[in-house]
Structure formats: structure tokens, C-alpha cells
Amino acid sequence: MYDTTAGKSEAEASQSPPGGWLQYRLWGLKVTEEAERPVVVMKMKVRSTNMGSLRRCIPLLLLTFSVSEAARIIGGQEVQKFSIKYQASLQTEQRRHYCGGTLVHAQWVVTAAHCWRPAHLMRVVLSEHNLYIDEGPEQVFELKQPAQLNSYVQPAELPDDTARPTVCTVSGWGVTQTYNRVLSPVLRAVDVTVFNYCQYYYWYRLTPNMMCAGNYRGGKDSCQGDSGGPLICDGKFTGIVSWGISCAIAYYPGVYTKVGNYVKWIENTIRDNTPTPLDRR
Known about the structure:
Blueprint: H1 10-13, E1 21-26, E2 29-34, E3 40-41, E4 46-49, E5 62-63, E6 77-78, E7 87-91, E8 97-105, E9 108-110, E10 123-126, E11 139-143, E12 167-172, E13 188-195, E14 210-214, E15 230-233, E16 236-243, E17 254-258, H2 263-273
Antiparallel strand pairs: 1-2, 2-3, 3-5, 4-11, 6-13, 7-8, 7-10, 8-9, 10-11, 12-13, 12-15, 13-14, 14-17, 15-16, 16-17
């Protein structure tokens, strides 16, 4: 391991994300991995295409820490079709959903680290509602041009670092019962409360880059299949579904990557790797 900030100017070092970092090449894309835990950023230039087989379908992903207890909507309800315009579905070649994601720029999607797969084994779909019925203007991304932003597809707004959210909404196609393995066929969402003292519940594994949200009595949470998806607070992309102990259990909230800690890094990464001026809208 080595510290990529060594020998750099203060300005250059400030552009690196939190923690000590390693850089290497993966599948022809520049990937950055945090030494403390697997956080990876990859560049994606995309174009929308028909729902066909894709040879090289891969998103620009901010890949964040997760564990296997809950690849992780319980207690929520089906959302209005195409109302969550930034929600992405990460799918296998066989069109099977396995993780969520969030569009933050026409060329950039954010998800969790364990959701990443080699380019030829995954694809990213926007404006999806029912996983089993072709009923909307779906977009599948291939390495080419930016996504087409329209009334169905818009990027989420990044938060500012002063935000102190209390009630948020998490969405996804994950299971709707704790011990169920069947994914929801339709996009669902649930309101959850931010736990201000998350370390009391997960004292042994939390970092400053994590936050907790759920319900003190249980019954409302993200769960298997929701991983990598968005936690939206006050209309802004505040968290990434990451991990937790089981799902929807009282006093064991879901754990999310705190997007606010990475905003400057995300913006710098987009600016430095996008030929056009930074414009999330």
C-alpha cells in the first residue's frame, strides 16, 4: 500500500477522497480504491440504447463499503411510475436486478462496492418501474455518450456538507419481508428516520463516512436487493444503501454511506473526467 497524496501539493491532495488511497487500472478504466475499505470510482461514458444484449455495459460508479449481513424495502409502498427519476437498476446479462444505483450526472451513476461486476456481466437501466413488464422508456447504458435526460430521467442533487437531515426516503426493488428472497417486481419506497447516535447500535464497525436510518420500533428499512440505491433527505442524495444487521429490526437501523463526505471529490472526479463543463442537470 502507498499514500497517493505523498509528494503532492496541498491542492492536489485535497482532491482525493477521505482516507489513504491506492490507484490502479481495472478493465481499462481508472479505479481508485481506499486502503481502509473498498471505495472505488470508475468513469462511465454512456448512451441510451434499446433493451438488447450489450457487450460492454458498465457505469461510472462510486463503490462504497458494504458487508454481507444485508445486501439490502420493508414497510413501504409502491411509488408512482417514473416518479423517482434518478433511480437506477443494476442488472445481470439476463436482465435480473441485483442492486440499485443513483444517477448523479448524465454520465455518472453511484452504487455500492459489492454491486460492481465486470463490464460484460452487468448493465444499468434507468426509468424502470416494473422489473417484469416493458412499459416505460427504459435506458440501458453502454460506453458511448451521455444518457438522455428527460421527464423520466434526471440526476439526483448532491447534498451540501452542512445538511442535518432527520426524515429521509429510501427506494429500491429489494425484498419486502426480512426472510424473503423474492425481490419486489415494482419500485418501492419507505420513509425512515435518521439515527443521530448510530454508534450506540454499531459501535464496533462504524466510520465517520457512515450514517444510520430506520425506525426505532423496526418494520421500516432497506433490505436485500436495495444495496447501492439512494437515501434521499430533503430532496437531496444523502446516503447510499450499504449494510445492516438483518432488516427492519428494532434498534438495528440500516447503515448508509454518507454522500456529503464525498461531494467535493465526486464533483472533482466528474469535472476532471468529463469533456463538457460540470453540469449535473
